[in-house]
Design goal:
Number of helices: 9
CATH superfamily of the largest domain: ATPase, nucleotide binding domain
Low-confidence stretches: none
CATH class of the largest domain: Alpha Beta
Helix content: 25-40%
Strand content: 15-25%
Strand order of the largest sheet: 3-2-1-4-7
Radius of gyration: 20 Å
Mean pLDDT: 90
Order of helices and strands: EEEHEEEHEHEEEHHHHEHEH
Structural class: alpha/beta
Shape: globular
Bound molecules: zinc ion
Length: 317
């Protein structure tokens, strides 16, 4: 059983909002403050510092764990790169140094997908699994890999970018990272819509029925297709099967390389997965013994919680 000996602030910096919480025990305890991030970098940074200051003053916070979009250096101190999914002013900002100087308490920074994996490992769906991978399926694909109880962070901290495994030599789709045909260009929520449009264009206009009826194919969304699944729409089922096929390719690759106890699926797209169907597709592609495929426990607060667990272990043990 993991428990926090000190109150620690958890902060999650995402593209559209920043969440603050104070954590005791296993879950966010008090005062989840949410800050919307659009605006000038100066304004958002000032509001960010205010949010941190309020939490510390009100709750006697002893350390800060930050989960952030973008890659983070090996020293867990700052963001070293992002694909444009961070609020203005954060990329390259000396987060640890700045906050430690302002508030005089220790700070740890970790990539959000790594932090989410750590939370699932410490207290979530992968609790007790020394080898586990958490995959976050949203507009992109993030991942965190735990091997022998430790996060794999790579040579500079930028490792475990599982969303950018190349899928095909065809150079069909440009990824947000600038490369061609990454896994997330096919198996994320964004990829889902692109798969749907590609399939829809092959159907003659006169034959477009169900979710495709009277639709502008360029505007076809993931939601349009998902909504058709309930009616067993033929096109929607085909798109969904193809998506699970792409999902299985990436997941089976990871399973074959790491032979984990479990793979945890998180993020907005994870709730649309048919686990039996996906498991069957994975089984066709793996050379290792069974690995559990499980839904995440912590969803929205996983990154924040994971950063808190990492800070607690680093500063109070
Ligand atoms: Zn990529």
């Amino acid at each position: 059983m993991f428990s926090m000996s000190e109150k620690i602030a958890g902060i999650d910096i995402g593209g559209t909002k920043i969440n603050f919480a104070c954590v005791e025990g296993e879950e966010p305890g008090c005062d989840v403050i949410s800050l919307k991030t659009p605006g000038t970098s100066r304004g958002i940074l000032d509001a960010f510092y205010d949010g941190v200051g309020q939490l510390i003053a009100k709750h006697g916070i002893k350390a800060i764990g930050i989960a952030t979009a973008g890659t983070v250096d090996l020293e867990n101190s700052r963001v070293t790169g992002s694909t444009g999914n961070l609020p203005a002013g954060y990329s390259g900002l000396e987060l640890k140094k700045t906050l430690e100087e302002k508030f005089n308490i220790p700070v740890l920074v970790e990539n959000d997908a790594n932090a989410a994996a750590y939370a699932e490992f410490k207290a979530g769906s992968a609790k007790g699994h020394l080898n586990t991978i958490t995959i976050t399926l949203g507009t992109g694909i993030g991942g965190g890999i735990i091997a022998n109880g430790k996060l794999i962070r790579g040579r500079s901290g930028a490792g475990a970018e599982i969303g950018h495994i190349p899928m095909t030599p065809e150079k069909k789709r440009k990824c947000t990272c600038g490369a061609w045909d990454c896994w997330e260009a096919y198996a994320s929520g964004t990829g889902y819509a692109l798969n749907a449009r590609e399939l829809a264009r092959k159907i003659p206009v006169n034959n477009r029925k169900g979710v495709l009826k009277d639709k502008n194919i360029d505007e076809l969304t993931t939601y349009d297709v998902i909504s058709g699944l309930n009616n067993n729409d033929k096109f929607a089922v085909e798109v969904h099967n193809l998506w699970e096929e792409y999902l299985s390719m990436g997941i089976a690759s990871l399973m074959n390389v790491f032979e984990p106890d479990s793979v945890v699926l998180s993020g907005g797209m994870a709730k649309f997965i048919n686990y039996d169907a996906l498991n069957a597709k994975i089984r066709e592609r793996v050379v290792i013994a069974d690995t559990q495929l499980v839904p995440a426990k912590f969803e929205n607060f996983a990154g924040l919680l994971g950063a808190v667990y990492l800070a607690s272990e680093k500063f109070f043990r």
